[in-house]
User: What shape does this take?
Amino acid sequence: MTEALTWIGIGALGAVGAYARFWVGGVVTDRWSGPFPLGTLVVNLSGGFALGMLVGLSVTGPALVVVGTGLLGGYTTFSTWMVEAQRLGEEGDLRRMLLDLAGPMVAGLAATGLGWVAGGALG
Assistant: This one.
């Protein structure tokens, strides 16, 4: 894959990932609404698992860059996670804010590790 195709792939799959994030987050939030931002958590955990799978499957080179950076980079979201944590803090819900900050970090590492193990078992 040429460098130009890699960049085009990153942009195209980044758009697909961003749309998927919007859709998945919306579906989760519509079904399980509440004060905790569960939609963002589901998106980030599933994205971490998928990235772990890529690594476990030994995907490398431009394919890893296009799918990992493009698709999964567009799909997962750090900024929304931080804004939602800040909102919880501004509302005075410090317990949920701390849970929203610490929980996804621990769960994200676990999800990515599980994906890596699963990918290794499949590869």
